[in-house]
């Protein structure tokens, strides 16, 4: 049996254009909302064309000591230049950058999974501690 986890690639976002940079405070106040920015291609831009683009980022949080992650959000990027004239003709493009907010009473780990339409699934993670 093949597991989906085996298909999720990982790398340093500073060296791999498919990996999400997760940016937020490393330590947050319990039960207070904090900002999380998630970007694909922050250091090395990923192509953004009709044929090749980032289509989605999903963000999850796994509280320390728990088994199941919680989904914080799923962010779709649907404009990649296509129009009735053909690929890369509309000049309208979405950009794979998300700002969201969340809170937690527990420390844990954020996971971002990005999806490239031709290069599959990529993950990154960031630990969150409590102040
Ligand atoms: Fe790609």
Overall description:
With 131 residues, the protein is mainly beta. It is built from no helices and 9 strands. It has strands spanning 9-10, 20-23, 27-28, 34-40, 54-63, 70-76, 97-102, 108-116, 120-130. The strands form 2 sheets. Strands 1, 3, 5, 6, 8 and 9 form a 6-stranded mixed β-sheet that branches. A 3-stranded antiparallel β-sheet has the order 2-4-7, with no helix packed on it. The model has no long low-confidence stretch (mean pLDDT 97). Fe (ii) ion binds next to loops. Residues 18, 46, 52, 116, 118-119 line the site of fe (ii) ion.
From the structure above, extract its key features:
9 strands; 131 residues; mainly beta; globular; binds fe (ii) ion; six-stranded mixed beta sheet; three-stranded antiparallel beta sheet
- Are any ligands bound, and if so which? fe (ii) ion
**Overall number of strands:** 9
Largest pleated sheet: 6 strands, mixed
Per DSSP, what share of the residues sits in E-state strands of 2 or more residues? 35-45%
**Rg from Cα:** 16 Å
Shape: globular
Q: Determine the mean pLDDT.
A: 97
Enumerate how many helices there are, as a single number: 0
- Helix fraction bin: under 10%
Low-confidence segments, given as residue ranges, are none
Order of helices and strands: EEEEEEEEE
What structural class results from the helix and strand content? mainly beta
Distance between the termini: 42 Å
Describe the SSE topology.
Blueprint (H helix, E strand, L loop, with lengths): L8 E2 L9 E4 L3 E2 L5 E7 L13 E10 L6 E7 L20 E6 L5 E9 L3 E11 L1
Parallel strand pairs: 1-9, 3-9
Antiparallel strand pairs: 2-4, 4-7, 5-6, 5-8, 8-9
């Amino acid at each position: 049996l093949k597991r989906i986890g085996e298909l999720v690639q990982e790398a340093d976002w500073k060296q791999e254009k498919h990996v999400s940079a997760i940016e937020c405070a490393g330590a947050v106040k319990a039960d207070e909302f904090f900002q999380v920015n998630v970007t694909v291609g922050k250091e090395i831009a990923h192509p953004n064309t009709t044929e090749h683009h980032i289509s989605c980022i999903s963000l999850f949080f796994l509280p320390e000591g728990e088994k199941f992650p919680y989904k914080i959000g799923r962010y779709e990027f649907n404009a990649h230049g296509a129009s009735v004239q053909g690929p890369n003709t509309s000049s309208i493009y979405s950009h794979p950058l998300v700002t969201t907010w969340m809170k937690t009473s527990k420390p844990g780990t954020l996971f971002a999974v990005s999806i490239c339409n031709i290069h599959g699934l990529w993950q990154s993670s960031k630990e969150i501690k409590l102040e």
